[in-house]
Amino acid sequence: MRKPIIVGNWKMNKNNAETKAFFEAVDAVAASENATYGIGCPFTDLRTAQDNAKNLIVAAENCHWEDSGAFTGEVSVPMLEEIGIKYCIIGHSERRQMFGDTDETVNKKAKRLLKAGITPILCIGETEAQYDAGETEKVIRDQLTGSLADLCAKCVGSMVIAYEPIWAIGTGKSATKEDAQKCCAIVRDQVKVMYGEEAAENVRVQYGGSVKPENIVEYMACPDIDGALIGGASLKEASFIDIIEKTK
Ligand SMILES: O=C(CO)COP(=O)(O)O
Predict the structure, then answer these.
(1) pTM, whole model, 2 decimals?
(2) Could you write out the DSSP letters of every residue in 154-173?
(3) pLDDT-above-70 percentage for the chain
(4) Which of 4, 42, 147, 160 ranks highest by number of CB atoms within 10 Å?
(5) Among 12, 61, 96, 164, which residue has the most ligand 1 atoms within 8 Å of its CB, making it the best to mutate?
């Protein structure tokens, strides 16, 4: 049985004081046997988040694949490990579109995180033009082929994969539950093609893109959707609490 996992992605938002206030308001509500709740936050907030989290899991939003060296502005996996981080978002479409992340570099990040026992939350998803051209399935399979190359089946089974159609991110134009289910099933099938039945059964697949309290329940009812990656609606304490209460 896959345990649902719902994670907020704050992106480049919130300072330390805001992080502390958020965790003080939300952490106790996130206690649940049935689901995992968490927040991905900027590097500068990670320690504050960790210090104030008993129930919420804390995720970094990126990492570098090398352990140290001349990589100005980057943060390594051992640095995340040292402060107890257990999850890390990789390959978010904003990083792919604006900061040059590719399936190849995302794959290197996944390998290094898995070696450290940190769970990658791997993001994939098509652009609006690809959606309109009917290329969604091909894009999903291609991105997974590259991003999940040369891993072990058990490792892949332990991962979280977030299907986030780019046209649904921050637009309020969320995918229909039928489309989201169909694409999350394609994600699971591609894991099966690459790593077999058990990895496909175990991998947790999230939907992301304009998820909010009003639509979370219908996504979570879909058989291949095990959670959500949530941007805007994770920034306000009240809406994230609402999401938690509707899904615990
Ligand atoms: O990018 C996202 C999560 O990673 C989704 O963002 P929104 O929930 O704001 O659409």
Answers:
(1) 0.98
(2) HHHHT-EEEE--GGGTTTS-
(3) 100
(4) 147
(5) 164
Output the known binding site for substrate.
Answer: 9-11, 170, 210, 231-232
Computed from CA positions of residues 131, 132, 138, 142, in that sequence, does the dihedral angle turn out positive or negative?
negative
Sequence letter at residue 58: V
The atom of ligand 1 lying closest to the CA of 168 is: 10
* Residues lining ligand 1, Cβ inside 6 A: 9, 92, 164, 169-170, 208-211, 229-233
Give me 184's structure tokens: 């999350």
Beta bridge partners of 120: 88
Q: pLDDT category, 1, cuts 50, 70, 90? A: confident
**Residues contacting residue 247 through CB under 8 Å, at least 6 positions apart:** 4, 6, 35, 216, 217, 220
CB of 23 within 8 A of CB of 58? no
Cα–Cα distance between 218 and 215 in angstroms, integer?
Answer: 6
Which domains does the chain carry? 5-247 (3.20.20.70)
Q: What is the pLDDT of residue 61?
A: 99
Burial track 92-111 (b if 16+ CB lie within 10 A, e otherwise): bbbbbeeeebebebbbbbbb
Annotated active-site positions, please?
Answer: 92, 164
From the list 74, 75, 80, the residue with the least C-alpha distance to 58 is 80
Nearest to 8 by CA among 223, 206, 215, 178: 206
Chain-centre distance of CA 196, in angstroms? Answer: 22
Strand ranges (E), 176-226 = 204-208
